[in-house]
Amino acid sequence: MAWGTPSRERRVLKAGHSSIAVTLPKPWAEAMNLRPGDLIVFDQNDDGTLFLKPAPTPGATTAGVPFLVQAHSFDTPGVLERLVVGAYRVGHDAIEIRTDLPLSPDRVEELLLAARNLLGVSVVAQEPTRMVLQNFIDPSKYGLPQLVQRMKMILVAFLDETEEVLQRRAKSRRLPTLQEEAGKVLALLVRQLFLASRDWSLARRIGSPDPRQLLEWRVVVHALEELAELFGEALGALNDGAAALPADAAATLAGSIPDLRLQLKATVEALMHPSLDNACGVFHDGGEVGIRGAALTRSLARKAPSLRTAQDRLHRGGRCLSLLAGVAIDRAVAAGTETILVEAA
Questions:
Q1: Same domain, 24 and 39
Q2: What is the number of other CB atoms lying within 10 angstroms of the CB of residue 230?
Q3: What is the count of structural domains for the chain?
Q4: C-alpha triplet 279, 309, 270: angle, nearest 5°
Q5: Which of 115, 135, 155 is the last residue of a domain?
Q6: 298-309 pLDDT tens trace
Q7: Is residue 62 part of a domain?
Q8: Residue 25's domain spans which residues?
Q9: Which backbone phi and psi does 285 adopt, to 5 degrees?
Q10: Which residues contact 268 (CB under 8 A, 6 or more apart)?
Q11: What residues pair up with 69 in beta bridges, in sequence order?
Q12: Between 257-272 and 276-299, two packed helices, what is the crossing angle to 10 degrees?
């Protein structure tokens, strides 16, 4: 059920001697975990419309205050980068790193790399024992559908490169670039979902008018993240053994990629434009792709290890698309705008 139905209109009630009141929709109040006595803040637009949201809870993070990570020293590689990525993904705009001992050149380079790998992030202060990273992205400018479409383009590029490696039996030079781009978009997608979960007006502006859809979006983003990892591993395995790929087996695997690419495009289309008819068709086609992939696994059992690895990752990618096709059906059913007849088996 969308937020606008079935109780879109509400009557203005008298409250006391000179005040008036309007009740809040129960599903929205429950989603916000509102209770009698809780505070609500509102913003008034120039056209007279109001945006309501729960008041910040005591102790909540104040806007503009950096997320502070402080330690005596940082010695373990990767920890600082993951802390920065985590702070970015959950919505912090400023991230400050402080240490008692000066940061080593390796840790400084790690922080600089983390900033380069996150959209909109720059290092704004750098001292021997202190670094500050700042995000400059306006979240309202990055809609969820647009970011998902961008991820589709990156995943298609992974498959294009994989097909070319199999056909030419030569390494792809685009793998690092595609992995970096996928990581940036996925991190921003997760960030957008965290921010939208705390600000329903933002959720509407970036493409999730019903806050309950955010859970669906999280499933979609997780599946896209898994697809990027699987396709990257497939391309990486083929790169490692490109020169030794058996021609016949490579051609066999290359022949399965067009179906997977079409399934990817159709699945994302069904997710972005919910239609029960299209979603059911994509779900059925996904099962067919999975069956062909299983048969191909047996045919490659005695071939090169890199081919077996690549085929396994692509087959798992097909199964991941089947999961997304199921989510597309869920979204189409929730929209409730059409009825189709499903023939019995």
A1: yes
A2: 22
A3: 3
A4: 10
A5: 135
A6: 666 566 888 889
A7: no
A8: 13-54
A9: -65, -35
A10: 148, 149, 152, 324
A11: 97
A12: 160
What does the block give as tokens for 18? 């000179």
Structure tokens at 336: 């409730």
Residue 1 has pLDDT above 50, yes or no: no
Place of tokens 């053994």: 241
Share above pLDDT 90 across residues of the chain, in percent, rounded to a whole number: 51
Question: Does residue 25 lie in a domain region?
Answer: yes
Confirm whether 200 is domain-assigned: yes
State both tokens at 25: 């929709």
Query: CATH number for the domain including 87?
Result: 3.30.110
Cβ-based neighbour number of residue 23 at 10 Å: 11
Last residue of a domain, one of 109, 135, 161: 135
Q: Does 217 map to a domain?
A: yes
Q: How many Cβ atoms are within 10 Å of 169's Cβ, its own excluded?
A: 17
Judge if 103 and 156 occupy the same domain: no
Q: Residue written as tokens 């997760």? A: 190
**Averaged pLDDT of the chain:** 84
pTM: 0.78
Q: Which tokens sit at 128?
A: 């021997």
Average pLDDT over residues 28-51: 69
Q: Does one domain contain both 77 and 193?
A: no
Task: Give yes or no: residues 164 and 216 share one domain.
Answer: yes
Q: What are the φ/ψ torsions at residue 213 (nearest 5 degrees)?
A: -70, -15
For residue 163, CA distances in Å to 116, 182, 223, 228, 243 come to 29, 19, 22, 16, 15
d(CA 229, CA 164): 19
Query: Does an H or E element contain 171, and which?
Result: none
If asked whether residues 130 and 154 sit together in one domain, one would say no
* CA distances for 296 relative to 163, 229, 292, 301, 302, angstroms: 15, 21, 6, 9, 12
